[in-house]
Structure prediction request, 167 residues.
Amino acid sequence: MRHNKKFNHLSRKKAHRDAMLSNMTTSLIMHKRIVTTLAKAKALRSYAEPLINRAKDDTTASRRVVFSYLQNKHAVKELFSTVAQKIGDRPGGYTRILKLGNRLGDNAKTCFIELVDFNESMLQAKDQEKSAKKTTRRSRRSSSKKAAAPAAEAAPAKAEEPAKAEE
Prediction:
């Protein structure tokens, strides 16, 4: 029976699965976005987010724990310097999974997983939404009054012009 065994084994033995998730986490930290299958991305999220959370506290002990998982000093340096600065105030949810569709060869569900604070296009879109002026709904009555007002202003002007010509 498999009671209380919730994580996805990904059809791999433990050593292979740990090595794959470590390599994928290193790639995610270095490149900020990777394309993979949906099952691997979900497994990667549960593997990488505790490591990213540990990077908020920049101590020797934290660095050693993260290095024991990643085994890559360049990724550890990038995580504790660049990534930790951007995610310092975020309480969790450091990764985002966006689905892409199915792969042509084997019809596997593909997606890309990215670090949330490093997607510049989405950050710019959020800034534009905040700075954009809110539009209000307009009723027909108010638009007809505005259209009638310029016509009423133009009519007296035409009446004054012939009066000037007669003088």
Summary: The longest helix spans residues 140-166. The beta strands are 33-37, 95-102, 109-115. The mean pLDDT is 87. Helices lie at 14-31, 38-54, 60-70, 73-86, 120-131, 140-166.
